Automatic annotation (TrEMBL):
Keywords: Disulfide bond, Immunoglobulin domain, Membrane, Signal, Transmembrane, Transmembrane helix
Family annotation (Gene3D superfamilies): Immunoglobulins
Signal sequence extent: 1-22
Domain Immunoglobulin: 25-128
Transmembrane segments: 159-183
Cellular component, GO, one term: cell surface
Single Gene Ontology MF annotation: signaling receptor activity
Name of the protein in question: Immunoglobulin domain-containing protein
Length: 240
């Protein structure tokens, strides 16, 4: 029972320590081909004469040694491939330079001090490799142009609807105005023709057109003397 409790406490402590390590990690980033300068400070009084180690964590969590330096060595700088490490024990600063960065250099590293098997982690560092800045700028520019063109297309749709609506309204107004003008013209012509139309009386029963045309004939023949008709009528009566 006590053993089981001890295992649980150990697992909890490991989890807490892992969370603390993950929280205290420092991030460095660079582009391919660049040189990354990493600084790990340490306590001069306690860690000054200790061996300094730069290692990289694997998937399991084991830190594989890459390069190390010792203050007792005549040269306080060591190089391994594209990585070099230098120890300035006067200031208590450990410096790591990674030249010609590659994508394979990305990962989590540790600065450590080692003395007689006693290992102390100074700092955990995450190295991130960024994409080429030119490609990033081009892709960002393309995305920006795409967004702008999309917004312009979205704005053009309501604008087209407004233009079409205004055109329809204008056409309707012009058509209505043309109808009103045509009606006004026809109305004035109708009243003008009606005012000048000659007056005609309807014919009554028992009367002929000759009776109603007589006054007109008389008016037309006003120049002739009317008593001739009376003389002619009197002459006919005497004959009978």
């Amino acid at each position: 029972m006590d053993r089981y409790v001890l295992q649980i406490l150990t697992a909890v402590l490991l989890g807490i320590s892992g969370m603390c390590l993950a929280k205290d990690i420092t991030v460095y980033s660079g582009q391919p081909g660049e040189t990354l300068n990493i600084i790990c400070p340490y306590q001069k009084q306690t860690d000054r004469w200790k061996k300094k180690v730069w290692c990289k964590e694997d998937d399991v969590g084991f830190c594989q040694l890459l390069v190390s330096v010792h203050p007792y060595w005549s040269n306080f700088k060591r190089t391994n491939m594209s990585i070099d490490i230098s120890d300035n024990y006067h200031k208590g600063i450990l410096t790591i330079n990674i030249t010609n960065l590659q994508k394979s250099d990305a990962g989590v590293y540790q600065c450590r001090t080692v003395k007689f098997g006693d290992v102390n982690t100074l700092q955990r560092i995450r190295v991130q490799i960024l994409e080429d800045q030119m490609n990033v700028n081009i892709s960002e520019l393309d995305n920006a142009q795409h967004i702008i063109s999309g917004s312009q297309t979205e704005k053009e749709i309501p604008l087209m609807l407004v233009v079409i609506g205004c055109s329809l309204i204008s056409f309707k107004l012009l058509l209505l105005g043309s109808i009103v003008i045509w009606w006004k013209r026809n109305e004035s012509f109708y009243w003008t023709s009606t005012d000048h139309e000659p007056f005609s009386m309807p014919l009554s029963a028992g009367h002929s057109d000759a009776e109603y045309s007589l006054p007109n004939d008389r008016e037309e023949n006003n120049d002739y003397p009317q008593y001739i008709n009376y003389l002619y009528i009197g002459h006919q009566n005497q004959a009978h």
